[in-house]
Amino acid sequence: MIDLTTQYEQFGISKEVYSFGENILSSLKERFRQIDETAEYNQLKVIRAMQECRVSEACLLGTTGYGYSDVGRDTLEQVYASLFHTEDALVRPQITCGTHALALALMSNLRPGDELMSPVGKPYDTLEEVIGIRPSKGSLAEYGITYGQVDLLPDGGFDYDGIRAALNDRTRLVTIQRSKGYQTRPTLSVERIGELIHFIKGIKPDVICMVDNCYGEFVETIEPTDVGADMAVGSLIKNPGGGLAPIGGYIAGKKECVENAAYRLTSPGLGKEVGASLGVLSSFYEGLFLAPTVTANALKGAIFAANIYEKIGFSVFPDGAQDRHDIIQAVTFGSPDGVIAFCQGIQAAASVDSFVTPQPWDMPGYDSQVIMAAGAFVSGSSIELSADGPIKPPYAVYFQGGLTFPHAKLGILKTLQNLMDKGIVTADFHRAK
Ligand SMILES: *Cc1c(COP(=O)(O)O)cnc(C)c1O
Asked: Which atom in ligand 1 lies closest to the alpha carbon of residue 249?
């Protein structure tokens, strides 16, 4: 049998890079222990929800056609409702991605003349077209739904005065994005989301508070619906799918909100009654079962990367010591070469498509070239080890996922080796020049 360092050497990772990583890891024991504790708590939460809802072997089978009386689908929705402590949930493969889930929640709960408001600044890129911030066919704007936005204060705090002023008679729904996404603002903790909702409902009790929960599920022991959110919305090819769900999205929330979404997803009159689950249910159940530990692995990867690159002298966000509220890690390399070397390192560590070398390309919808590393079992899944970066200043790379920590570790060590081979990191582990 060969030893571990030889195993790493077979991936082109030197003994020096490996032991640099080991040193960093030994300083992270307490952080990792806390993450394991959260995962343990959430694992029990998931199992309890499944037991309470009496998940049975029959639930793992699917239906075809109209999908009437799909016991597995209906039970899974109860499991989500139980887990999020909500009245109801919609969890479907017919919800194609996170953007679709969010668009569905918005379009089904807003009516012409209503106003949508974001009290936490600009929403995720793809929502700009849903809302109509960037003109788009079928946007909320086309249906006469207006949009208001209050930015966070420069220190990341809520602009309470601005929010009070922006809430008006027509404000029907408030959208709160938990994760920073690809911005530099801090990610919101569930506690802070609760404070914000409390403030908003104090002014306008009937307003619907929706949380874009993407990348946030299971990072903490509570979810936004535990602190007053009327709806939590997310993608199954991120945290809650546990890497196994091949498609899907969810909306967990108040009965009326979920009902509206169901009538919009299928048809008025049909709602939740139709929608065959085909063969995906067992992966939805098993993915949810794995999600707490998968999320923990991704978090450990993010923290490991932050500490490695911080030590070398690159700016990292969040920093190595900060509390985590989502799984995204940004590292600023300050040069295109750094971004490219990092992404190529992630790709080289993949099980699928490890032999391809990602290159920057002109991706539709972006104002600069973008490079993406994704060797995933589920196409585009960002709970799997993945990274991407726009080729423009400040030359930052956004890194997330890792279904297992050993894989995340391999990927991160491979990025470091790559940066070193290219002379971007010196042999004594400093930022070059
Ligand atoms: C990923 C993401 C979305 C959109 O999800 P897609 O599945 O890519 O459509 C929306 N909001 C946030 C915060 C996200 O991270």
From this structure: 7
Cα–Cα nearest to 251, from 104, 397, 429, 426:
104
* CA of 99 relative to ligand 1 center, distance in Å: 6
> Residue whose CA is closest, atom 14 of ligand 1?
214
Choose one of 187, 212, 370, 381 to mutate for the ligand 1 pocket test, by most ligand atoms within 8 angstroms of C-beta: 212
Atom 5 (ligand 1): residue with closest C-alpha? 98
**Rounded Cα–Cα distance for residues 149 and 121 (Å):** 6
State the distance from the centre of ligand 1 to the C-alpha of 252, rounded, in angstroms.
16
pLDDT of residue 365: 65
* Residue with CA at minimum distance from ligand 1 atom 2: 214
Distance 125 CA to ligand 1 centre (A): 9
Give me the mean pLDDT over the 242-250 stretch.
98
Residues 6+ apart with CB under 8 A from 210: 105, 106, 109, 173, 174, 175, 176, 229, 230, 231, 232, 233, 253, 257
| Joined tokens for residue 50 | 């499944």
Under a CB-based contact definition with an 8 Å cutoff, are residues 237 and 66 in contact? no
- Is 425 within 8 Å of 25 (Cβ atoms)? no
- Beta-strand ranges (E) seen in 64-144 are 88-92, 115-118
Helical spans, DSSP H, in 313-380? 336-348
Q: In what order do the strands lie in the sheet with 249-253?
A: 88-92, 249-253, 231-235, 208-212, 171-177, 115-118, 146-149
| Distance from residue 119's CA to the centre of ligand 1 (Å) | 18
342-376 pLDDT per residue, tens: 999 999 999 999 999 999 998 876 778 999 998 99
- Residue whose CA is at the smallest distance from ligand 1 atom 8: 98
Amino acid letter, residue 368? S
| Residue-wise pLDDT tens digits, 332-341 | 999 999 999 9
Ligand 1: lining residues by beta carbon, under 6 Å: 97-99, 124, 126, 177, 179, 181, 212, 214-215, 235
The secondary structure of 391-409 as a DSSP string is SSTT-EEEEE--SSHHHHH
**Residue 64, CA distances (Å) to 61, 167, 373 in order:** 10, 45, 35
Non-local (6+) Cβ contacts of 169 within 8 A are none
Strand duo 115-118 + 171-177: pairing: parallel
Give per-residue pLDDT as tens, 80-119. 999 999 999 999 999 999 999 999 999 999 999 999 999 9
Q: What is the rounded CA–CA span in Å between residue 340 and residue 400?
A: 16
Structure tokens at 66: 């109209």
